[in-house]
Specification:
The protein has 217 residues and is mainly α. The protein folds into two domains: 113 residues, no CATH class; 48 residues, no CATH class. Helix content is 51%, strand content 0%. The chain is built from nine helices and no strands. The chain is elongated.
């Protein structure tokens, strides 16, 4: 049958043999990431899949590569990753001819991996980067990104609030030092926090003062 819609344009049928896979420049990020990830040991990941069951539509090793490359490009949504696999030639290159996975496939894959296995894979990845002298470990940086597993507007700890809390704690510490000096005659201003706490506990125990905790105390 012939389609007669206005948007239909006949296309010449071709035999897909995947020759386009070799046309990407080797200095592209996707090629570099793929080369590094090829050096990892995926045995712990493979053990999560039963050898007796049905083979997954896309090997877990390739799914991991796609998710690492997506993260390197700032793509974290599973739906967005799935869409990239359908329209982006670099993601198609990583898939090695496999059909684009759905977002549910990525979701099942991600929830199957234990944190320990995921950490092991990324430790290997960072190690491979270090072998290329691509990462400088002499300095560490922390940016302002706020990320939580169960994030909402009430769970974040803001910097100003922390700084105010630290200032209040320092004032309380000074007050305790003054009270200890007046109560025991001990000069404890030179003690650090742990030594000060032990001194307070010793004084309280020596005077029969018991510590209580819980609601209303």
């Amino acid at each position: 049958s012939v389609k007669y819609t206005k948007t239909y344009t006949p296309r010449q049928l071709v035999l897909s043999i995947g020759l386009w896979r070799f046309h990407l420049e080797q200095d592209r990020l996707v090629c570099i990431v793929d080369a590094l990830l090829e050096r990892l040991d995926y045995s712990a990941l493979q053990h999560l899949y039963s050898v007796k069951g049905r083979n997954p539509k896309v090997p877990p090793k390739i799914l991991f590569k796609v998710m690492v490359f997506a993260a390197a490009q700032g793509v974290y949504s599973l739906r967005s990753i799935s869409e990239q696999c359908r329209v982006n030639i670099e993601y198609m290159w990583l898939l090695e001819g496999y059909l684009a996975p759905s977002h549910m496939t990525f979701g099942r894959f991600f929830h199957r991996i234990p944190i320990a296995v995921l950490r092991q894979l990324f430790v290997q990845f960072v190690h491979q980067l270090s072998l290329l002298d691509s990462v400088d470990f002499t300095e560490w940086y922390i940016d302002g990104t706020k990320m939580e597993a169960n994030a909402n507007r009430y769970t974040f700890v803001w910097r100003k609030r922390v700084e105010k809390g630290i200032a209040k704690l320092k004032e309380k510490r000074r007050q305790i030092q003054e009270q200890m000096l007046a109560f025991t005659g001990m000069d404890i201003f030179i003690l650090d926090d742990d030594e000060l706490l032990r001194s307070v506990v010793d004084v309280c125990q020596g005077n029969g003062i018991t510590f209580v905790q819980g609601s209303g105390h």
